[in-house]
Design a protein that fits this description.
By secondary structure, the chain is α/β, with parallel strands linked by helices. Helix content is 41%, strand content 17%. The strands form 4 sheets. Strands 3-4-2-1-5-6-7-8 form an 8-stranded mixed β-sheet, with helices on both faces. Strands 19-18-17-16-15-24-25-26 form an 8-stranded mixed β-sheet, sandwiched between helices. Strands 11-10-9-12-13-14 form a 6-stranded parallel β-sheet, with helices on both faces. α3 packs across α4, α13 crosses α16 and α18 packs parallel to α25. Bound molecules: alpha-D-glucopyranose (GLC) and magnesium ion.
């Protein structure tokens, strides 16, 4: 990769957060209501950034306050955490600790003091990272005053709370408006999960799809020591008859949506589970049923009731308090005894506990609603279940307890995956984004006329081998006259993330969601091709498709964010399912395109959509004739574009769904795999067309 340092990149990054007690470790989480997880995030992020040599200075900006109870360090104007990392505390004139409305009322004074501080400096920061919408408002004012661009991380979004049934009060409505302003003004938005990126953020009116970036945060878990494990044992021992049994562990606050009762029911009703394992619930810290909050008390009462009903005495532990080290110890204990971690939530925005379980090597059974879908699919460390289906929860736990190989694979996958979710990786990706934001020339230019159009699939065609990806990127950097398009099954947001992650060239045009969406990149970001959308919409009846396929055995819908305007996607369990899908659609006279990829991913699209149709649409708009079109792919959803293109390339790692194309006129099957194979195919095309044109001249 190009070294940014050589290009003169030595960034000064300023991270802003207004609420909470931000300080160097040890942070006292929970000391105020606002002293929560975002502080781990900021410290992890900024420490990692400060370790890089293309970063000159990492600076965290927050409010200064003087309150003995909360710690005197919050009154220190500058606290160095390492030579390149400092916390700068800005004195707004009010030295009290503030939360909520009072914090909002103090903002104008804070901004004035901060801008004054910045103006007195020899060197201004290059980029600001704002945490939460209030800091984004500060960042916008800095941008207006000093022209410094900013990146916004929402951490949690109000609109989703409203949709989940929260009361529509002024506070929430204002917050949503502030979030929308932040989304509209930020040069980039960083969020953690696909649900946040593709469902929550995209629901805001000011969103621009090309500004959303998913970057996985680092994992902050610490390894558990022997004494942590002993402490955990002591915590649960008084509850349990037979301590030696494997632990089924759940860690979640005692609120309804976490559905702990679902797990207790699954355990209580299953003789097998009760016989084989102990259930350990860490349901937050509770004050006692007479004092705690109403919802917590109700949830705990229900759990106790279920324990009575099923007579679970001696096989379930539910300690009222726990410390960080006991939690660590419990995860380790669950791993040691070959137990299972369960998150049965009715909806889970991200699911950090699943990453923690992975870190400690505990396989998981997790709700498929919300963020866990991403995490479990990425880490491959357990089973997703419908949280309302108690039998499914039970079966998934028993399966993991029973199947040694499955348990081992899940434990190892989770452990290695979670250990690679580091803040250094995060920092690497942050810098790629920062580079684009600070130096917008980096963004692709849309030039007027092109000689060729290369349309390539992404996964396993351009990704899969770093060296090949580097070579094809270098190749395209030299070919200004060729338009480059990505055609992928992924959503636009995920496709952008993968292109950045693999340092692939920025395409002129993006064909996404299996050729059901087209985006053109221009000077101010991406624009959806509405002509194409109008065209394919004509005979698309998604509700009817859903209904027709509702109860096909062996057909499971993919996550909700995979269901797009012109795409319904499923997992296929058994053979024969595809035929059944086609039969049902035909029976209901629904014209739709059915595409199977990698043997188990099934997409249903409008009849006139697909990568092939999208490719022809793009070629027409760019006025590139079909003879100068090159299509490259590896799997089922590439079939249509490879079969209609006169110059197709299949990389060596192509999957069975494409076998019938071998031997087709103009098709080149590369010797090499992945991007190296794609490049081989393009080079072969150019050699062939040079040969043809010299033969024509000679003739
Ligand atoms: C991508 C999409 C998925 C689709 C698959 C095959 O993985 O995310 O929804 O089924 O491509 O086209
Ligand atoms: Mg592919």
């Amino acid at each position: 990769m190009r070294s940014r340092k050589q290009k003169g990149f030595d960034l000064h990054i300023l991270s802003i957060a207004l609420g909470g007690c931000i300080r160097g470790e040890p942070v006292q989480y929970g000391i105020t209501e606002d002293t929560g997880g975002h502080i781990t995030y900021i410290l992890g992020e900024m420490e990692a950034l400060s370790r890089r040599d293309d970063v000159d200075r990492a600076e965290i900006v927050t409010r200064l306050f003087d309150d003995e109870r909360l710690g005197r360090e919050h009154a220190i104007a500058e606290e160095y955490l390492n030579p390149k990392l400092a916390i700068t505390r800005i004195d707004s004139g009010n030295r009290k600790y503030l939360a909520k409305e009072q914090l909002a009322a103090d903002r104008a004074a804070f901004v004035a003091a901060l801008i004054k501080n910045l103006r007195q400096r020899d060197r201004l920061p290059d980029i600001v990272h704002a945490h939460f919408a209030d800091a984004a408002d500060v960042a916008r004012q800095i941008k207006d005053a000093l022209s410094i661009p900013f990146i916004y991380t929402p951490h949690s979004l109000g609109l989703d709370k409203l949709e989940a049934g929260a009361e529509r009060n002024i506070g929430l409505v204002d917050r949503i408006a502030e979030e929308d302003a932040a989304i509209g003004h930020a040069a980039g938005i960083i969020a953690s999960s696909r649900d946040e990126c593709e469902r929550q953020l995209t629901a805001y009116p000011s969103v621009r799809i090309d500004r959303i970036h998913r970057i996985t945060p680092g994992v902050c878990a610490e390894p558990a020591t022997r004494s942590d494990i002993d402490a955990a044992r002591q915590l649960v021992a008084p509850f349990l008859k037979d301590e030696a049994k494997p632990v089924i562990l759940a860690v979640a606050r005692a609120v309804r949506k976490k559905n702990l009762i679902g797990l207790v029911e699954a355990f209580g009703r299953s003789e097998e589970l009760r016989g084989r394992a102990n259930l350990v619930l860490l349901a937050g810290q509770r004050k006692g049923l007479l004092e705690g909050e109403a919802e917590q008390n109700e949830v705990i009462s229900e759990i106790i009731d279920a324990i009575d009903q099923h007579e679970l005495y001696g096989s379930i532990a539910y300690p009222p308090h726990h410390s960080r080290r006991e939690v660590r110890g419990l995860y380790a204990l669950a791993a040691e005894g070959r137990g299972v971690f369960v998150n049965p939530a009715l909806i889970e925005p991200y699911g950090l506990t699943l990453v923690e379980a992975a870190f400690y090597g505990v396989p998981v059974v997790a709700t498929k609603v919300g963020g866990p879908c991403d995490i479990v699919r990425e880490l491959q460390h357990g089973t997703l279940v419908d949280p309302t289906n108690i039998g499914e929860i039970e079966a998934a736990i028993i399966d993991l307890l029973d199947d040694k190989d499955k348990w081992n694979a899940a434990a190892i996958n989770g452990h290695s995956g979670a250990h690679s979710m580091t803040w250094d990786r995060y920092a690497e990706k942050f810098m790629m984004l920062a580079e684009e934001v600070v130096d917008p020339q980096m963004r692709s230019k849309l030039s007027q006329s092109y000689h060729h159009l290369v349309v390539s699939d992404l996964d396993n065609t351009l990704t899969g081998c770093r060296e090949g990806a580097r070579r094809i990127a270098r190749f395209f950097a030299r070919r200004d006259d060729d338009a480059f398009a990505i055609a992928t099954g992924r959503s636009i947001i995920e496709a952008q993330r993968i292109v950045r992650e693999w340092n692939l060239p920025q395409p002129t045009v993006w064909i996404t969601s299996v050729g059901s969406e087209i985006y053109w990149s221009g000077n101010d970001g991406l624009t959806l091709d509405t002509d194409f959308a109008d065209q394919i919409e004509r005979d698309w009846r998604p509700q009817e498709v859903e209904r027709a396929l509702d109860d096909v055995p062996g057909l499971e819908p993919q996550a909700n964010y995979e269901q797009r305007r012109f795409k319904r996607s499923y997992f296929v369990g058994e053979e024969g399912v595809v035929d059944e899908v086609r039969r049902r659609l035909e029976e209901d006279k629904l014209e739709a395109r059915v595409i199977l990829s990698h043997g188990h991913l099934l997409d249903v699209l409008p009849a006139s959509a697909g990568k092939g149709a999208a490719m022809l649409h793009v070629a027409r708009r760019l006025r590139v004739p079909v003879e100068r079109l090159i299509a490259i792919g590896d799997s089922g959803n590439d079939h249509d574009m490879l079969s209609i293109c006169e110059n197709s390339v299949m990389v060596a790692n192509y999957s069975g769904e494409l076998s019938d194309l071998v031997g087709q006129r103009g098709l080149y099957v590369a010797q090499r795999r992945h991007a190296a194979g794609a490049l081989e195919g393009i080079v072969a095309y150019h050699a062939r067309s040079r040969r043809n044109s010299s033969e024509r001249k000679a003739a």
